[in-house]
Amino acid sequence: MHEPRNLQKTSDTADAALHSVRVVHCALLISMILFSSIAEIQAPHELQNLDKIFPLALGMCSLAIIGLALFFRTKKLQPAVETLQSKPDDAMALRQWRTGSILTATLLEAVVLYGFVLRYLGAPMKVSLTFYVVGIALMVLWWPQRP
After folding, report:
1. How does pLDDT run across 8-34, given as a tens digit for each residue?
2. Domain residue spans of the chain
3. Cα-based torsion angle of the residue sequence 20, 21, 22, 27 in order, rounded to the nearest 10 degrees
4. Which of 26, 80, 115, 118 is deepest in the core (most CB within 10 A)?
5. SS (HEC) of 18-69
6. Quick check: helix, strand or coil at residue 117?
7. Taking the alpha carbons of 132, 74, 94, 86 in that order, is the dihedral positive or negative?
8. Do residues 87 and 67 touch, judged by C-beta distance below 8 A?
9. Is 2 helix (H, G, I), strand (E, B) or coil?
């Protein structure tokens, strides 16, 4: 049996949106891995006398960014998913889902970049590794699912 044309078009649109979001998500995840690898290979290996408040400040910024990402997931992404489950042809909800997914991923990219910056400034690997692990783990945990 053939699906009605408008239902098939909606499904194609949702699948295309999911594909595009997954491509962006995957590209950001790969860049996170590359940033952390490059920092460990290229960063100065002698530890600099880095003020201890700086890693702490970037850690607090990272927590704020993660909080902002959670806010967008609960206030933007979740309502869009609920709308799309009941009304899959809602273009506004699909746009909101796509925007929320990409925005969340880019916020997590910043967390990894903070670790990258710290490593180049001479922070120990265990400090920068915390930023890498948290950013990458949340990216994997928040892999885009079909709404």
Report:
1. 444 558 788 889 999 999 999 999 999
2. 5-141
3. 90
4. 115
5. HHHHHHHHHHHHHHHHHHHHHHHHHCCCCCCCCCCHHHHHHHHHHHHHHHHH
6. helix
7. positive
8. no
9. coil
